Structures are given as C-alpha cells and as structure tokens.
C-alpha cells in the first residue's frame, strides 16, 4: 500500500489525479474502521492532514466557506453561532475523542446515510466544493449523495469544503437508543430563513441516502405566517410531520424498525419546527 | 471462632486500596492480551458462517502455502478428547463434520504475524452443505427439564393474572476480549497464561483435549478484562495450546470485538408464561409457570441455569402452591451459559412484572403487594427448602420505597431522554417509578462438591512477620485479591500480606462466579489462616494471638510473634467447603439445593419521552443485604456494576438473531450503558449476618443485576402505560 | 515499508509498519506499550484513548503515520493526581477501560480549562464542572464493570 502525503492542495489534487484509487484520509474516524476490519485494502492512502487550507474557514461573498478538514470540535467551538444546526449535529457525533479528529469532509466523503452532518447541510442548502486538477465545481448537497456510501465525487476529485449561508433558525435532532455515543436511528434537521421565507429540511438514517423532504419544505414555506410570525397551527405542524415522514423510505434493521423511524421523524419534525419558530418569535430575524 | 482484635489496619470490614489498583491506573497491569514471549506466533480461528451445516471437506492447502504460516490445524489434529464442556462434554474443540452455530470454530492457524494468521484462516476452503437450522427453543432438543411441584396443583384464587414475558440474548461484553499465551514446555506439556474465571476447570478440559495429564498443563491467571460469566467456558485455551505444542513456539491468541461476540456463551434468551393467583387482599395462593430457555448449540452451564430459573422462579415470596416447569433446549443459536445472575435474571423479570400486574388488578401499591407476600427467615421455598438466616425482603422493599424521591428535572437538555441529541425540550416527557426485588442462590448448588483451596504461609521477611496467600481464585475485577489480604490481616494480625498470582500449582478455588468467591475462597483463606495460627500457638503452647504477641490463657505474653516464626515459616493448605447441598427430586423438584440466598431491591425513577420511546434513568435506589461488607467500597462497586448491567438488559442490550445469524456483533450496534445512561445511585447496604458463612457474609455480585431490570421496566411502564413484556424495551415497543 | 518515527511520552521511537496501521496497533504490537487497550477497534468504547499534543483521541481510529512529529502521551507517560483518585474512589474494577478513562479525563480537564464548551453547552462560555457536566464530557469511555459513579467522583475530586 502506498502512502501519499501532499503538503499543499495542488500536490493533493495532483496525487489524486495520479492515484484515483487512493483513499483520502483526514481525521481517519471512518476510514480506519474499514482498514482495521480489513473491509478495505486500498492501493494507496492519501493523507490530507498536512494540507493547511483544508482546516480553514472564512467567508466567500455572503456564504460561509468551511474547509473539509475542519473537525467537529472546531465546528462546535468556532461556528456554533453561525451554523447552529451543524454544531448541534456535531455534538452528537461519536464521542468527544472522535469529535476532536473527525471532519465534516470525511462525513461527506463516506456518504453514509447515517452521517450526522448531512441533515443540517441539506437543510441549510449547502454547496459541496469538489476539486480536481481539472478544476473546481460546487454541487448542491442534495445532489451530492447517490446511494448508500456513494456520491457524485469523481475518482480524481477531492472534497475541498462546503459553503453555506449562515443565519436563520436551525435545529437538529437525532434519535438513538442510548444517551451518548450512538449511531442515529434517524435524524432530522430544519432550517428556516425569514429573509428568503424558505424552509430547509434534512433527513438522516431513514433512506438509502440522506435526503430533503421537499414537499414538506414547500408546504411549510406556504403555511408559515412569515409576516406576523404568528403561532404555527397544530394542523400545520402535524401535516409537516407527516410530509417529512412520507419523504423517507426507511427499512427495518438492528437499530430500529421502519415504522418507528417514520413515526419518530414526524415527531422530530414537529418539535424542531416549534423550537425554530419559537426562536424567531422570541428573538426576531 | 476467635479472630484477632489487634487493630491491624486493612482488615475485614475496611476498604484498603486494592493491590492491583496502582498497576491498573498506570497501565502496568498485564492483561491476557498484553503478554509477549520471544519467538511468539499468533493464532487465528476460522469460524463457521452458517448456523447449521455439514462439512464435506476442509482444504488447508492455500493457507499452509502462505509465507509466515506455521500451522493449520483441524479436529484431526486434536490429540485427546475431541470435545469439552462444563457440565456435558458435547462441544467440539474444532468442528467435526458438522457445525451447529454461526461462529463455531472449524480450524486454527499459527503465523508469525496476526494479520498473516487471519489471512491464512480466510484461505482455508471449507465445503459446507448448509442444513436447516433450529432457531426456536421450543422446537429444539430438550437439554434439561426442571419441574417443581409443591402444594395443590389445582388451587384456585379470587384474582388471577397471567402474562407471557421474553428476555433477549444479553452479552457479557467484557471490554478485554478473550486472549492468552500458550508456551510449550520442555516436559512436553504447556504453560498457559490466560484470562479465565476458573483455572482448574480450564486445566482439566485443556489437558483432556490435549491428551496430557493435568500436571503437564499449567495455568497462570493473566490479567482479566472483565468476565461476568463469559469466561467460565473455554474459548481459545485448547486452540492456543494445540498450536503451541504443534509448532514448538509460544502462541498468542487475541480475539477482536466481533470475534469475541462469537467466542463466548451468552445469557439464555427466555420465554416465560406465568399465572399468579391471589386472594382479594393480595396474598398469593398459587403460581404456575413455564420457562423455556434457549441453550444454543452446546450445553455449557445450561442445566444449572434451568435449575436456577426453576428454583428461584417465583421470587422471594411465600407461595403455598407452585407448578413450575423450566426447560432448556438445544438449538442452532450461539451457545448460552453463564452470565451474572443466570437463570434468576430471566425469571425475575417475569415474576416481578407479574407482581406489578397483580398489584394493578387488586388496586394495591406495587410495594404493598410484595410486602404482603415477602418471604422471611423460616419461609419455605417451593423446593421445600427452609430459608435459614436473614431474609429481609420486606425491610429491603421498605428501604427503597422510603428513600426521598428523585430530584425533579431542571429542564436542562443534558437531563432529558436523548440528552444533547436534542430530541426533546420536555415535550412528551413523563416520569415513572418502578420497583423490583430478586432472589439469588450463592455458590454452587444441587449437591455439587463446591470447595476452595487456600495456602497461607507466615514467615519473616526482613525480620518482620509477613503473610503470603496463594490460591487459584480468579481476580476478575471484583476485588478478590484485596479481600483475601484483608482476611489474612484480620486472622493473623499481620499487616504485611501478599497475595500470590493465581495458578494451578495450588488446588482449585472453584469459579469466580455464582457470587461465591468471597464466601468460598475467602472462607478457605480464613480457614488456612486459622490453621496457621493453631500451628503457631502450638509451637509455644499459646492460647491466642494479640498485637503481635502470643498470649497464654491468662493473657500473659509468652512470646513475640516474630520470634516464634523465627523458628521457621508456617504454611498450611486448606480445602474448604460450604455446607452440603442436595439434588432436586427429578419429579417434584424438592430438595435443599442451595446453600445461601441473597436479596436485593431496586427503585428506579425514569423520564420517558413517550412520543419517541426514549428513556433516561434519572436515579436508582437500591438496598441489599450483604451479611457482612468485608470490603464496603468493593461491595458498593459490585452493586453499581450489577445494577448497570441490569439496566442495560432493560433498555438496550441484545444480541439480535435472525435465523441463527448474529446481526449486531459490534459495539456500535450492541449497545451497553455509557456514563450518561447510568444514573447516580443511592446504595443502602444491610449487614445481617448469615450464621453459616464466613464473617456472616452473603454473596454480592449477582443480586443487583437481577432486580434492576424489572425495576427499570416497571418505571417505564408507569410512565407509558404500556405492557412491555419483553426486554430489552426498545423505543418502538413504547410508541407502538 | 516506511520507517515511522513517533514521539511518545517524551521519547523517540521508531517502527517499521505498513501505512494502514493504527496508532493503537503500533503502540501495542510494535512498541510493546501495552498500557493502551483495544476494546473494539472502531472508536466505540474509548479504551484506547491517548493524548496527542494534549488533546484526547481514540488511537484505534488514528492512522499512525499521521502522528509523526506530534507529542503522544499514553498511560505509561501519565503522572497525574487522577490516578490515585481513581484508586481511592474505586473508579475501576477490572481496569481494562482505566488507561483510556484516565487519558480521556486528563484531556477533558484541559479542554475545560481552555474554555472549550462540552457537547452540551449551548453558550460558548465554559460551564462549571458539575457532576452532570463531567458525565457529559466523559461519555466517550465505556466501563463495563459499571464503575461510573466512582469515576465521576474521582474526576470531581481532582477537578475541584
């Protein structure tokens, strides 16, 4: 097995172009499980931890651009107020030890339906920035996932980072059968923007890929009283929950049943809506 | 009995620092997985992917051809007995023509690197003819049926409640996986360094399978990373020894987590049907029960588990009329055997659920209905055995009931079900309180010749009296080494006590299971110390020992302890037995089968998100009679730990099987409680001496596991109103 | 096979290992620093927790070659009041999780001292290390013996 160790982004892209079957590794918290259990023996590993720009975040116009190598810990500590939904999700990733190392870029790269970072990125309408020696492209995150552990990432591409519009009210909730260190049975993220009067959603662990509940989004953006920010009628919350559940296509597995997941998603949708809307009503835009 | 009242520090009833504590917090304690020898090879095991299949052929050619491979062995290479077993010799060392459960060992490999060994094992080609698997206990072959009949089988009652209950397959999930090092010896034997619960039962089985006399198979206890019953059966002991003898090199085997799930027995899944009949004022008239246990592919300790389920299966209650049938069956599921509280755990979930149901039917408080039926000293078990010694069932219940209520939640997200996963800010959260009480036998039962051996040596080291205690008793984390030293200090009045590493150069101590070791090996150490003391006094015609002096009858100082030992060390080895027990009558189940009973009660307070089915246990209050807290800190540790495992069974722990295939052999999917799942506890320890046991002590380790499960489930029922007849309770059971 | 140079407990170590090897396997199988334990090999138990530049990580999910030039501290290099506190409060039974618990607790205390919010803290201001906060921050280390109450007490004592 080769070990590629670029120290600049250009070197990293060149290495990936030369070794398209190399597996990129940053914090290692996903890749190492595969290596330890001998499920995967890639011909090469591409270490991205020396590529400094990957660990940076900053603004890009009116978007926030976060490097793929920013750890969950830093999302919580440095971006908690700008990206509250993602920070809430980051808090539920593995353990403190894993949050010290794991990165959102790695989560995207693995493209697991249970990845905790995906629902808030979906809800926030994030763009994933993919790069190769051929150039850079920005893919809307809801077009990024292609199947269980599959994405639109080309063999010569690396995930450079993601871009997201900060602000709005964001919530994230994750069901697990233990009070810590648990893989999601299902999860849900909600993002409300007063500015654009739009609703974003993200569902985790309840379909072959993380996904948006677009019908639920459209319904809610129509029904919410954006002007006066009046209370959400229970029937609207109920319907929103039903539409979120309907968007999922869960299965029965060791972590939970399909029926439970659908039910739980509708509950999470209603609750996160109440919390997010309450935030608007109390704090204002 | 004359114990020394010399005020020596660190004796019985105190909590001295555990001697292994310093090593453990510095990372210097050598666990079985940490061992190393020059020239060492690594072993790996090929296991069956099928729950049931005929083996038409095994081709090892490709494995042998891999560079770095030193041995590839199958059942044909087992020189002695091809099978082993704790109670019934039925489990093949390596599969012979047939595999009966997923994970059954088929071949073993030794190589110069662990990965090479694993890759070689994967290259072995096994030609399987897959056969239908029996995965339903009731369809399996009967392994043992334990009937119990007392009173009138046709008794009737005013109020009758019935229920069917199920317990899933729990795993001991010790953190330190199966591992050990086998070193071939010059005499043709083997020295095995191993994490186990019972060195001598391992020794006998390994020697039989190797075709060696026992004295050529020498076992030394390596550091044990938790046990909880899972190390009572053999795992890699014979395999590593075979490979070592075959290659002439030391062989180390270490299971990974996934393999560990296949490498040891589990708690028996159970289906239980109960019918309780009571008078209108809540006195039990009769209990009829049928318990079906899934024993899996091989017997392990199934027969004893069935006996426990039967004999303890109506709980710590006085019931005049009992019809009980507990049966265990062979299936093609993984073998089930010992896990903390075995047999008693399953039944307790059922009978305590029934007591709550009865309370509800009668409109009584759940504790009240228990109090009206609580057994006490002199009560008669359904086996006819009279409960001797304290049986403070009512007292324990009253104590947990009268503890102050758990504090109200503050609304902090961290205190909510789901915690920072942010599933509720209080929506749907309902508090519930539940109770449970259980009964467990201590030590081995049914006429088993249960004994422990201790060798105690009193000598001068650097001019000072010192004691060396040597037993084969397995320290598995429970603090047995601490306790052995405490007993020697108390009995001999000598502070300086060393406990030698456990090995087979001294006689058997029996198993570190059945809550028996402080009783049994503790008893043996005490007896050996008393023998040493008697020999010491005899040297100078003294009457007693006090403050480092030998005194006469009148209290005059005859000699200094050091000067008496100066004539030469005194060493005594004692084999110590508890009072005999007797077999159960095979038809009526009558008999004095158990030597001691132990009791614990729990009160659990939970917050349940009733819409999502998520639970946070807010507080657990427990009371347990330990007879005598030989080491109060360690007693509390056992109660915490046992309670945590019972909580795990209540809410999350289950090996999930589909058609004989384990679906969750990992710590990401077999969930055990974290520090956020285990609440603060209030522990009330009673010390009501048992007149027959050393210092009056009572076994401690298992009772807390038994009653915490029903208490937690009862609390969830109280919050949700759901019947919840199966553990672990899953969110979909609560919202469904 | 590249030669790996690691700085562990203030000493330089060399090992010839394949690139895919975890830091945990290098510690245990190549350098015989066996104080760090393997419980699950997939980051789900915390037994293999070590400190890297003072920060806690699970060494089973750490690719060893990524840690060249970093200051790695394993339990063998720890000399901390927490160790005695664990013994005093019976924060261990079998002891298999203990090295990871202690490294994790040391990392946790310095995270807290540096003002890092816990997973729970809504505001960025660090919370006092209450018993609940200690549990929250120690939720990545499983103890199957169930010595959690002793562990929490030991950490509480050292923290205050």
UniProtKB/TrEMBL annotation, chain A:
<dbReference type="InterPro" id="IPR002346">
    <property type="entry name" value="Mopterin_DH_FAD-bd"/>
</dbReference>
<dbReference type="InterPro" id="IPR051312">
    <property type="entry name" value="Diverse_Substr_Oxidored"/>
</dbReference>
<dbReference type="InterPro" id="IPR016167">
    <property type="entry name" value="FAD-bd_PCMH_sub1"/>
</dbReference>
<dbReference type="InterPro" id="IPR036318">
    <property type="entry name" value="FAD-bd_PCMH-like_sf"/>
</dbReference>
<keyword id="KW-0560">Oxidoreductase</keyword>
<dbReference type="InterPro" id="IPR016169">
    <property type="entry name" value="FAD-bd_PCMH_sub2"/>
</dbReference>
<protein>
    <submittedName>
        <fullName>Carbon-monoxide dehydrogenase medium subunit</fullName>
    </submittedName>
</protein>
<feature type="domain" description="FAD-binding PCMH-type">
    <location>
        <begin position="1"/>
        <end position="169"/>
    </location>
</feature>
<keyword id="KW-0274">FAD</keyword>
<dbReference type="Pfam" id="PF03450">
    <property type="entry name" value="CO_deh_flav_C"/>
</dbReference>
<keyword id="KW-0285">Flavoprotein</keyword>
<dbReference type="InterPro" id="IPR005107">
    <property type="entry name" value="CO_DH_flav_C"/>
</dbReference>
<dbReference type="InterPro" id="IPR036683">
    <property type="entry name" value="CO_DH_flav_C_dom_sf"/>
</dbReference>
<dbReference type="InterPro" id="IPR016166">
    <property type="entry name" value="FAD-bd_PCMH"/>
</dbReference>
<dbReference type="Pfam" id="PF00941">
    <property type="entry name" value="FAD_binding_5"/>
</dbReference>
From TrEMBL, chain B:
<dbReference type="Pfam" id="PF20256">
    <property type="entry name" value="MoCoBD_2"/>
</dbReference>
<dbReference type="InterPro" id="IPR017609">
    <property type="entry name" value="Xanthine_dehydrogenase_dsu"/>
</dbReference>
<feature type="domain" description="Aldehyde oxidase/xanthine dehydrogenase a/b hammerhead">
    <location>
        <begin position="26"/>
        <end position="132"/>
    </location>
</feature>
<protein>
    <submittedName>
        <fullName>Carbon-monoxide dehydrogenase large subunit</fullName>
    </submittedName>
</protein>
<dbReference type="InterPro" id="IPR046867">
    <property type="entry name" value="AldOxase/xan_DH_MoCoBD2"/>
</dbReference>
<dbReference type="InterPro" id="IPR000674">
    <property type="entry name" value="Ald_Oxase/Xan_DH_a/b"/>
</dbReference>
<dbReference type="InterPro" id="IPR037165">
    <property type="entry name" value="AldOxase/xan_DH_Mopterin-bd_sf"/>
</dbReference>
<dbReference type="InterPro" id="IPR008274">
    <property type="entry name" value="AldOxase/xan_DH_MoCoBD1"/>
</dbReference>
<dbReference type="InterPro" id="IPR016208">
    <property type="entry name" value="Ald_Oxase/xanthine_DH-like"/>
</dbReference>
<dbReference type="Pfam" id="PF02738">
    <property type="entry name" value="MoCoBD_1"/>
</dbReference>
<dbReference type="Pfam" id="PF01315">
    <property type="entry name" value="Ald_Xan_dh_C"/>
</dbReference>
<dbReference type="InterPro" id="IPR036856">
    <property type="entry name" value="Ald_Oxase/Xan_DH_a/b_sf"/>
</dbReference>
<feature type="region of interest" description="Disordered">
    <location>
        <begin position="404"/>
        <end position="425"/>
    </location>
</feature>
UniProtKB/TrEMBL annotation, chain C:
<feature type="domain" description="2Fe-2S ferredoxin-type">
    <location>
        <begin position="2"/>
        <end position="78"/>
    </location>
</feature>
<dbReference type="InterPro" id="IPR002888">
    <property type="entry name" value="2Fe-2S-bd"/>
</dbReference>
<dbReference type="InterPro" id="IPR012675">
    <property type="entry name" value="Beta-grasp_dom_sf"/>
</dbReference>
<dbReference type="InterPro" id="IPR052914">
    <property type="entry name" value="Aldehyde_Oxdr_Iron-Sulfur"/>
</dbReference>
<dbReference type="InterPro" id="IPR036884">
    <property type="entry name" value="2Fe-2S-bd_dom_sf"/>
</dbReference>
<dbReference type="InterPro" id="IPR006058">
    <property type="entry name" value="2Fe2S_fd_BS"/>
</dbReference>
<keyword id="KW-0560">Oxidoreductase</keyword>
<protein>
    <submittedName>
        <fullName>Carbon-monoxide dehydrogenase small subunit</fullName>
    </submittedName>
</protein>
<dbReference type="Pfam" id="PF00111">
    <property type="entry name" value="Fer2"/>
</dbReference>
<keyword id="KW-0479">Metal-binding</keyword>
<dbReference type="Pfam" id="PF01799">
    <property type="entry name" value="Fer2_2"/>
</dbReference>
<keyword id="KW-0408">Iron</keyword>
<dbReference type="InterPro" id="IPR001041">
    <property type="entry name" value="2Fe-2S_ferredoxin-type"/>
</dbReference>
<dbReference type="InterPro" id="IPR036010">
    <property type="entry name" value="2Fe-2S_ferredoxin-like_sf"/>
</dbReference>
């Amino acid at each position: 097995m080769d070990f590629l160790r670029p120290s600049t982004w250009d070197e990293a892209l060149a290495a990936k172009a030369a070794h398209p079957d190399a597996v990129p590794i940053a914090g290692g918290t996903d890749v190492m499980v595969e290596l330890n259990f001998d499920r995967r023996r890639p011909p090469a590993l591409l270490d991205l931890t020396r590529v400094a720009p990957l660990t940076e975040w900053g603004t890009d116009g009116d978007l926030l651009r976060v490097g793929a190598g920013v750890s969950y810990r830093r999302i919580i500590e440095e971006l908690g107020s700008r990206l509250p939904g993602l920070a809430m999700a980051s808090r539920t990733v593995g353990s403190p030890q894993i949050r010290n190392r794991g990165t959102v870029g790695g989560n995207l790269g693995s493209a697991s339906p249970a990845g905790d970072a995906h629902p808030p990125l979906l809800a926030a309408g994030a763009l994933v920035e993919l790069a190769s020696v051929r150039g850079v492209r920005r893919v809307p995150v809801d077009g990024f996932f292609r199947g269980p552990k599959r994405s639109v990432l080309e063999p010569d591409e690396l995930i450079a980072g993601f871009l997201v519009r900060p602000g709005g009210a964001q919530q994230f909730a994750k069901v697990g059968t233990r009070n810590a260190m648990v893989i999601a049975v299902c999860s849900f993220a909600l993002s409300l923007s007063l500015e654009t009067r739009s609703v974003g959603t993200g569902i985790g662990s309840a379909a072959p890929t993380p996904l948006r509940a677009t019908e639920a989004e459209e319904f809610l953006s129509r029904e919410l009283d954006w002007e006066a920010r009046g209370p959400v009628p229970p029937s609207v919350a109920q319907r929103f929950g039903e539409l979120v559940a309907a968007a999922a296509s869960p299965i029965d597995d060791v972590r939970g049943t399909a029926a439970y997941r659908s039910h739980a998603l509708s509950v999470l949708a209603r609750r996160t809506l109440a919390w997010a809307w309450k935030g608007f009503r109390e704090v204002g835009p | 009995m004359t114990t020394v009242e010399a005020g020596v520090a660190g004796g019985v009833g105190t909590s001295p620092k555990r001697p292994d504590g310093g090593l453990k917090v510095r990372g210097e304690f050598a666990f079985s997985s940490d061992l190393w020898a020059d020239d060492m090879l690594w072993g790996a095991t090929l296991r069956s992917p099928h729950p049931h299949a005929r083996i038409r052929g095994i081709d090892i050619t490709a494995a042998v051809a891999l560079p770095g491979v030193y041995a590839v062995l199958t059942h044909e290479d087992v020189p002695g007995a091809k099978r082993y077993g704790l109670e019934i010799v039925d489990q093949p060392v390596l599969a012979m023509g047939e595999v009966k459960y997923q994970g059954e060992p088929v071949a073993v490999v030794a190589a110069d690197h662990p990965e090479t060994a694993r890759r070689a094992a994967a290259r072995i080609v096994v030609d399987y003819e897959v056969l239908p698997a029996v995965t339903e206990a009731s369809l399996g072959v009967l392994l043992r049926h334990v009937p119990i009949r007392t009173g009138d089988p046709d008794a009737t009652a005013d109020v009758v409640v019935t229920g069917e209950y199920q317990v899933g397959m729990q795993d001991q999930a010790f953190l330190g996986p199966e591992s050990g090092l086998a070193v071939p010896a010059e005499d043709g034997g083997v020295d095995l360094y191993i994490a186990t619960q019972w060195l001598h039962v391992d020794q006998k089985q390994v020697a039989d399978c190797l075709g060696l006399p026992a004295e050529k198979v020498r076992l030394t206890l390596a550091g044990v990373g938790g046990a909880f019953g899972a190390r009572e059966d053999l795992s890699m002991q014979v395999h590593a020894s075979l490979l070592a003898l075959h290659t002439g090199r030391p062989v180390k085997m270490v299971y990974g987590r996934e393999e560990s799930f296949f490498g040891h027995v589990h708690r028996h899944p159970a289906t239980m049907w109960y019918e309780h009949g009571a008078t209108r004022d809540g006195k039990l008239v009769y209990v009829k029960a049928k318990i079906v246990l899934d024993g899996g592919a091989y017997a392990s300790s199934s027969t004893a588990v069935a006996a426990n389920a039967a004999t303890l299966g109506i709980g710590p209650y006085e019931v005049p009329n009992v019809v009980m049938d507990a049966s265990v069956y062979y299936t093609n599921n993984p073998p089930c055997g010992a896990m903390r509280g075995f047999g008693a755990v399953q039944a307790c979930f059922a009978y305590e659920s029934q007591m709550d149901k009865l309370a509800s039917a009668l409109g009584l408080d759940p504790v009240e209905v228990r109090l009206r039926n609580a057994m006490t000293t002199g009560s008669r078990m359904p086996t006819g055995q009279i409960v001797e010694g304290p049986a403070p069932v009512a007292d324990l219940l009253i104590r947990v009931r009268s503890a102050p209520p758990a504090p109200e939640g503050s609304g902090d997200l961290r205190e909510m079900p789901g915690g920072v996963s942010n599933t509720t800010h209080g929506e749907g959260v309902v508090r519930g309180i539940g109770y449970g009480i259980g009964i467990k036998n201590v030590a081995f039962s049914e006429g088993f010749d249960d004994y422990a051996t201790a060798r105690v040596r009193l000598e001068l080291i650097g001019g000072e009296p010192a004691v060396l205690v040597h037993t084969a008793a397995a320290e598995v984390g429970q603090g047995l080494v601490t306790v052995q030293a405490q007993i020697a200090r108390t009995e001999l009045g000598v502070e300086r006590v060393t406990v030698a590493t456990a090995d087979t150069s001294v006689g058997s101590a029996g198993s570190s299971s059945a809550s028996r070791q402080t009783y049994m090996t503790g008893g043996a150490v005490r007896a050996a110390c008393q023998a040493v003391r008697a020999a010491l006094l005899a040297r100078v015609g003294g009457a007693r020992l006090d403050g480092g002096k030998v005194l006469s009858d009148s209290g005059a100082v005859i000699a200094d302890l050091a000067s008496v030992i100066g004539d030469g060390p005194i060493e005594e080895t004692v084999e110590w037995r508890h009072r005999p027990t007797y077999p159960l009558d095979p038809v009526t189940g009558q008999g004095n089968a158990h030597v001691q009973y132990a009791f614990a009660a729990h009160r659990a307070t939970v917050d349940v998100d009733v819409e999502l089915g998520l639970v946070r246990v807010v507080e657990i209050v427990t009371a347990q009679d330990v007879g005598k807290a030989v080491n109060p800190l360690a007693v509390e540790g056992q109660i915490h730990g046992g309670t945590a495992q019972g909580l795990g069974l209540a809410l999350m722990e289950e090996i999930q099987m589909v058609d004989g295939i384990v679906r969750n052999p990992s710590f990401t999917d077999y969930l055990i409680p974290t520090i956020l799942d285990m609440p603060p506890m209030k522990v009330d320890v009673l010390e009501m001496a048992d007149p027959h046991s050393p210092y009056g002590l009572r076994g401690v380790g298992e009772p807390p596991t038994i009653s915490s499960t029903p208490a937690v489930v009862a609390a969830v029922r109280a919050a949700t109103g759901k019947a919840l007849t199966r553990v672990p309770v899953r969110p979909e059971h609560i919202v469904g | 096979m590249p030669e790996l140079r690691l700085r562990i407990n203030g000493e330089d170590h060399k090992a010839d290992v394949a690139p895919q090897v975890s830091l945990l396997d290098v510690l245990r199988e190549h350098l015989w620093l066996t104080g760090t334990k393997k419980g699950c090999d997939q980051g789900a138990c915390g037994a293999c927790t070590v400190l890297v530049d003072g920060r806690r990580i699970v060494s089973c999910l750490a690719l060893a070659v990524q840690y060249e030039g970093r200051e790695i501290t394993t339990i063998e290099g720890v000399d901390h009041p927490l160790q005695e506190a664990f013994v005093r409060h019976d924060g261990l039974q079998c002891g298999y999780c203990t090295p990871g618990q202690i490294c994790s607790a040391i990392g946790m205390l310095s995270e807290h001292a540096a003002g890092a919010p816990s997973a729970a803290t809504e505001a960025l201001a660090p919370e006092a290390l209450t018993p609940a906060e200690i549990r929250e921050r120690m939720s990545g280390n499983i103890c199957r013996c169930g010595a959690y109450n002793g562990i929490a007490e030991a950490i509480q004592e050292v923290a205050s």
